[in-house]
Amino acid sequence: MSALLEVKRLEAFYGGSRVLKEIGFDVVDGGITTILGANGAGKTTTLRAVSALVKTAGEIRFEGRRIDALSTEKIAGLGIAHVPDGRGTLFNLTVEENLRVGAYLRRDRRHAAADFKRVYDYFPRLRERSAQQAGTLSGGEQQMLAIGRALMLRPKLLLLDEPSFGLAPLIIREIFEIMRIINAQERVSILLVEQNVSLALELADHAYLLETGRTVKSGTSAAFLNDEQIRRSYLGF
Amino acid sequence: MGGVYACLGLALVMIYQSTNHINFAQGEMAMFSTFIAAMCLQSGMPYWASFLATVAFGFVAGFAIERIVLRPFKDMPETSIVVVFIGLYIGVNALAGWIFGHELAPFPSPFPEKAPFGTTLISGHELGMIAVVLAVVCALYAFLRFTRVGLAIRASAENPVSSRLSGIPVSLMVSLGWGVSSAIGSIAGLMVAPIVFLDTNMMGGVLIYAFAAALLGGIDNPWGAVAGGVIVGVVENLAGAYVVGTELKLSVALLVIIGVLLVRPSGLFGRKLVTRV
Hints:
The structure holds two protein chains of two kinds. By secondary structure, chain A is an alpha/beta fold. Chain A has helices spanning about 45-50, 70-75, 95-100, 110-120, 125-130, 140-150, 170-185, 195-205, 220-225, 230-235; strands at about 5-15, 15-30, 30-35, 55-60, 65, 80-85, 155-160, 190-195, 205-210, 215-220. In chain A, the strands form two sheets. Chain A has a six-stranded mixed β-sheet, sandwiched between helices. The longest helix of chain A has 18 residues, at about 170-185. In chain A, about 45% of the residues are buried. The radius of gyration of chain B is 18 Å and the shape is globular. Chain B has one domain (about 1-200). Chain B has eleven helices and no strands. Chain B is an all-alpha fold. The interface of A and B includes residues 81, 139, 153 and 166 of A.
């Protein structure tokens, strides 16, 4: 299988300070890759770098094409949907308007209408609340809305930043199950950043470990689960 | 008068919807556009052609001001931007004085002098003005609520990062928002000029009333701005006639502003921001 997203020698900067020093990883077409690491290792920044939300150096390729010089809007237009850290809910808009924002780049009106149905079928609770102000949703519902907004773009690659953050275990299960379905049925590749390491390794097929802005380990999820050091540091057994 | 407050209040709401800022120079920009209209009329253009030309000028000017004057301060704190607005206020006012001079000039109304049905309660111009304001608010409401670009403008104002991740060109939307609001402001200028005479300071008092109107109605709601405009207009004149006298009319607007901020900061019809975490 070929790599959909290839990242080589990626660096990123906040102001003058270099927060990513040497990041390299691939996302296989149709696969789920997860990036693990402690707080402050640079996981969120890595996703922000892919979407050009921070200043970067190095090489990022999507479907073989360099994208590291493109703007955030252009990158979204290529089919990379980013579900940001903190969910990025548009609080004052209704649930339905939030989804319409996600469909902004869609030219094909009719298919977009079918996609509303698709998102509402994945997340029936959003359908119930479609006319409600998005700021009144619970955390789990907002996470569903954020994923729904990303799906409206008809992405080839979904970047997910901490989808489990602050949510109840039951809701987390539900959301992860839906991500598995989206990946399997619609062939949407996923790049997942997650604090909950066991959950992430369960969903993903490939994993990378970051430490202070560098990729220090890579392998299949199965290999990560059997790695003594990973188990001791991140899984606690 | 309520119609004018409503119209300029609408322009304030529009800028607020697209940038989350209050534009203190809104009135001056409207005044400048009105002078452009006067120039068009003097050169012999018919009224409604001048009207369209002026609205188009307002749009382009608003768009350009955002690009040239405000863009460099995009990431500055709120107070810096307020200072930029004040600079813009003084700058536009001085520029208008320099180009057009400081003499008062009458400005024509497109509407007949006498209202239909022989009523004397309201003049023809006031009636026409109310119709224009209602048309503007309906158009604006439909634009923001139902069009793709209108939604993109609201989304960009609320969460630029999220909007960009969905592929919305946020910087273009901000400029568009300025263009639309400046165009609405020029309509307000065209409507108020026949009442107050054309003059570089004609919008000074009006802006404060418009500000009161927008706040009273709720700064994020176009209909609220209209209702607020009417209420402020009525209260101002009643209070001016029976309570405080004409000299203190302007302080009524200030009282409204302070009162709203104290008692109900989201305004009568504004949405209170409800956030659950």
